[in-house]
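Quick review question:
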């Protein structure tokens, strides 16, 4: 089998855990997918690029590219909420739902079925990975100075701020551009000069090193997600925090309570009182925090890094189309 993909971490030659072998061809454009898909045993595997998925689905229907299986990995789906997005959804829904397999990093696919018409039988859950470098994690000097929240996709900073105003604890967020966060579906309605007095802003240049520095200084890592989210939001942040031995508090919903159990402390989304109570409990209850941290660390170590994720993806793709 030939995997034609834009996921450059796939090895040129691969072997599944049960011994099936195959090759990878890297496609950097739609034209590459069409050309490389000429082999009869080719499978199109598109990572995180909804536009290319739609192009391949439409081209396949019109006979403009080889009729090969299409696998979509980790597409970013959003609930249409504005007139423009609802109008666009009418035209995008059918080609976006035309792939043969959707590999997601979350289990609860009800939103994909309800909003995009993607049935559960065309969805597969594959566990995600730790994104931080293992050597950096191993040598990081930890401290427990603040309650941290960060990230972009569907994050609910408003609820975090409202919760922190109820608590006599130090909090932190990265330096952010609120407008850019809103573009990723986040809630951040406060001016930067009106944040809670106990929440400071940490230096962040967007690098893995900056993320490591923020996480290693946290006592708790909070991942508040808006109610409207129906896909994974915050898994990477959670696993990175767990790898550093940090206690994670997350909003209940897809991408959190459908994949984590005792590895996190779950709270209802958009509920400042419940979040404040969970933060206070985790900050003061050493046994709870230690127990949650240990479970999270075990999961992070078990899931590993990118090479482990790629192997899981290859195994799943080969099992479906090999």
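Suggested answer, residue by residue:
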């Amino acid at each position: 089998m030939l995997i034609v993909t834009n996921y450059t971490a796939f090895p040129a030659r691969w072997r599944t855990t049960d011994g099936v072998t195959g090759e990878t061809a890297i496609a950097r454009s739609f034209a590459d997918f069409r050309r490389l898909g000429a082999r009869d045993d080719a499978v199109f595997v598109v990572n995180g690029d909804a536009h290319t998925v739609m192009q391949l689905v439409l081209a396949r229907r019109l006979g403009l590219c080889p009729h090969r299986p299409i696998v979509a990995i980790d597409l970013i789906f959003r609930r249409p909420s504005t007139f423009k997005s609802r109008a666009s959804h009418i035209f995008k829904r059918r080609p976006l739902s035309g792939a043969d397999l959707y590999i997601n990093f979350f289990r609860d696919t009800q939103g994909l079925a309800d909003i995009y018409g993607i049935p559960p039988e065309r969805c597969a859950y594959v566990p995600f990975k730790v994104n931080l470098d293992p050597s950096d994690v191993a040598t990081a000097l930890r401290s427990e100075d603040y309650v941290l929240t960060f990230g972009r996709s569907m994050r609910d900073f408003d609820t975090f701020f409202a919760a922190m105003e109820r608590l006599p604890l130090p909090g932190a967020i990265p330096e952010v551009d609120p407008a850019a966060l809103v573009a990723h579906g986040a809630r951040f309605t406060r001016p930067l000069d009106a944040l809670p007095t106990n929440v400071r802003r940490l230096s962040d240049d967007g690098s893995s090193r900056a993320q490591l520095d923020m996480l290693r200084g946290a006592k708790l890592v909070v991942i508040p997600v808006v109610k409207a989210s129906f896909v994974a939001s915050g898994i990477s942040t959670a696993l990175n925090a767990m790898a550093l031995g940090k206690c994670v508090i997350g909003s209940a919903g897809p991408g959190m309570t459908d994949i984590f159990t005792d590895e996190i402390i779950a709270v209802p989304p958009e509920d400042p009182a419940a979040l404040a109570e969970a933060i206070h409990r985790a900050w003061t209850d050493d046994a709870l925090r230690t127990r949650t941290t240990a479970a999270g660390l075990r999961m992070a170590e078990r899931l590993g890094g990118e090479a482990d994720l790629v192997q899981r993806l290859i195994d799943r793709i080969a099992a479906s189309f090999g």
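Why it works: The mean pLDDT is 95. The CA atoms of residues 117 and 306 lie 30 Å apart.
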